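#lab-general

N.A. 3:47 PM
ok so I finally got the sequence cleaned up, no stray characters, all 145 residues accounted for. can someone with queue access submit it? mine expired

B.Y. 3:52 PM
send it over

N.A. 3:53 PM
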Amino acid sequence: MRSIGVSNFPLAQLEEIIGATGVVPMIHQLELHPYFQQRELRAFHQSNGILTQAWGPLGQGRSDLLENPVITAIAKEHDATPAQVVLAWHLGRDIVAIPKSVTPSRIVENLAAVEPRLTDVELERIDALDRADGRAGRDPADSGH
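B.Y. 4:20 PM
back already:
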């Protein structure tokens, strides 16, 4: 095996798999969006050469993210949609983001997210949206017991 990818590993498990096998995953897919930025994991990824891939990059269907005044204001400044701005934030932070859609018009809209070039100030404004209660999905570290 030349490379592996993992999904939803908490930091301790990621460190454990690397320590036990000596293999550093090439990519780690995890819930990540402006309301839940996983900064500690992203820093670990960066220092270990691991690509970060977001699942639920648009907030897992959270309409409140796409209606956030910071996101909508930046969208207006760029003549873009809020979804395009959120995807542009991912790109600006070197996060692989593949939003799910089966609607042709949304797929075209998502692909156009490469067009808005967010400034450092705009990226920082979106960075400030990170919240302790931002997780939309289930915590993978919670075994459910």
